[in-house]
Amino acid sequence: MIALCRVIVVLLSALTVSLPAALCQEEHQHPVPEKLGEAFFPVSCAPAVQEPFNRGVAVLHSFAYSAAEKIFLDITRADPKCAMAHWGAAISYYHQLWEPPITPQDLQRGQLEIAKAAALGGRSPREQGFIDAAALFYKDAPRVPHSTRALAYQKAMAAVAARNPDDREAQIFYALALLSTAPSTDRNHMNQKRAAGILEPLFKEYPEHPGVAHYLIHAYDNPELAKRGLPAARAYAQIAPSAPHALHMPSHIFTQLGLWQDSILSNIAARAAAHHQKDIGEELHSMDFLMYAYLQAGRNSEASQLLEELRTMPGLPVSQFKVGYAATAMPVRYAVERREWAEAAANSPKPGSAPEVLATTYWCRALGLARSGKPNAAATEVEKLDQSLRQVREKNDAYWAALVEIQLEEAKAWIAYASGQKNISVSLLRTSAEKEESLEKRPVTPGPIIPAREQLADLLLELNRPVEALREFEVSLANAPRRRGGLSGATRAAELAGDSTKADHFKKQLLALGSATTN
Fold first, then answer.
1. pLDDT exceeding 70 applies to what percent of the chain?
2. Cβ–Cβ < 8 Å for 398, 443
3. Average pLDDT across the chain, whole number
4. pLDDT-derived band of residue 514, with 50, 70 and 90 as boundaries?
5. Contacts of 204 (CB under 8 A, 6+ apart)
6. How far apart are CA 256 and CA 446, in angstroms?
7. Is the pLDDT of residue 16 over 60?
């Protein structure tokens, strides 16, 4: 444990953050001071519960939902008349930027808590506004679709924020609601920009508030806005280093900008803190981002070790989306990024995972088989992909259905190529790239395993069409900077196209990533 503490201290020092609370208490009896940032949410409950309430809100803003729930429920016992404590418990069940946003069990718990809050009533119009807004989210669920209820909550929070312009928490919770209802097809990022417009002035005024920095990172977690997110990314881990999620979140911006060493440090620290706090979901989430960064940085040996560590984690609850997605994506990334097609073809699905998660494994197997020259075997995996797509559509999940459709088209494209149908393969991958680029990525992932546009460029390169391939690689790298596969392909395409200037440009970027180490 002492050695682990020393490693984490070094890593966090590199990130200019302090040691997460209690990370090394097993070796040191004096506790490390907890640091969650500064949140102040005044409530008209017993004065003795104000400080715990503030702490619950701070924890909530770093998405430590179970801890927040416990704090708020403890307050309900300390002050049975505190309606806002029941509101806090209810809102802690609504994970606005996670997959899924709320489970059926938590939906029932939240309905009970918000009913208690409504029965007690807010002691001010402001408190009543928070309660009424949350009640709209829980009203008539699950009969009314989640998206409808989420939008009703967002509109109600807009009204709360408008009536309380000087209340920072009203503004922050409204900004979060905007992010949670941002359309996945809006490439103009209107909700994200509106949220950032609310949060940026607050970031200057309240630089230690965890929610402000956190939600700015989410607002800027896209290629268009990512550069604006660096100040919040650099700050958040320092604001709330006791929260594993705060240690991880900067890597969302680092990933968008191709800052792989920063992402590696961020996720090593986050993983260690999550492991110590027994937060398996956050640990796996950090490991997936870490795997992605290792592979881009050419640190394949460390990526291999990370995969071995994943395999030693028994009984993973893969039915939990966050766990199932990361545990599935990591071995897929490891095989496909290294272009080890036999390894990709041998990838095994994890029974009990969501159909959209299983689809990633079937896509990987289809890709591996097709690119190994076995199109008939790959077609069997396409049938499984088709089945996954039907199951996702039955859940009325349009976003994940669109992503599985893209995977299906990609798999069919590589089967077509392996079967000698070159024009069809190009057409399918071009369509896939256009569809993928019309969708926003969700926070659960650092990005597609391999961007469809990069796959299209790879295909054109294999078809000896380097000028076209170079053009597609450049578009892909604009969307996903400093990806190793994109830089390597762009270098080769430029060389074959006779463009020495561009070849040198991409080669320098590739060399800056470092050489890929052995498996």
1. 93
2. no
3. 94
4. confident
5. none
6. 8
7. no
Closest CA to 332 of 456, 483, 445: 445
Fill in the amino acid letter for 197: G
CATH superfamily of 47-295: Tetratricopeptide repeat domain (1.25.40.10)
- C-beta separation of 289 from 274 below 8 A: no
Look at residue 517 in the predicted model and tell me its pLDDT: 62
- 400: how many CB neighbours lie within 10 A of its CB? 22
Say if residue 432 is exposed, middle or buried (CB neighbours under 10 Å; 0-12, 13-18, 19+).
Answer: buried
| Cβ proximity of 283 and 271 under 8 Å | yes
Cα pseudo-dihedral 361, 365, 368, 371, rounded to 10: -120
From residue 69, give the alpha-carbon distance in Å to each of 52, 56, 106: 12, 8, 11
- Gap between the terminal Cα atoms of the chain: 28
Rg (CA), the chain: 24
The DSSP string of 84-147 is HHHHHHHHHT--TTSSSSS-HHHHHHHHHHHHHHHHH--SSHHHHHHHHHHHHHHTTTTTS-HH
Residue range 210-235: average pLDDT? 98
The span from the CA of 358 to the CA of 384, in Å, is 9
370: Cβ contacts below 8 Å, ≥ 6 apart = 378, 411, 414, 415, 417, 418
3-state DSSP call for residue 409? helix
Q: What is the 3-state secondary structure (H, E, C) of 212-263?
A: HHHHHHHHCCCCCCHHHHHHHHHHHHHHCCCCHHHHHCHHHHHHHHCCHHHH
pLDDT digits (tens, 9 = 90+) for 393-447: 999 999 999 999 999 999 999 999 999 999 999 999 999 999 999 999 999 999 9
Q: How far apart are CA 250 and CA 234, in angstroms?
A: 7
Tens digit of pLDDT for each residue in 293-318? 999 999 999 999 999 999 999 999 99
Dist CA 252 CA 290 (whole Å): 11
Write down the domain spans for the chain. 47-295
CB under 8 A, 24+ apart: contacts of 69-77: 69/93, 75/45, 75/49, 76/116
- Tally of CB atoms within 10 A around 464: 8
For residue 7, pLDDT over 90 is answered with: no
Read off the tokens for 9. 């201290």
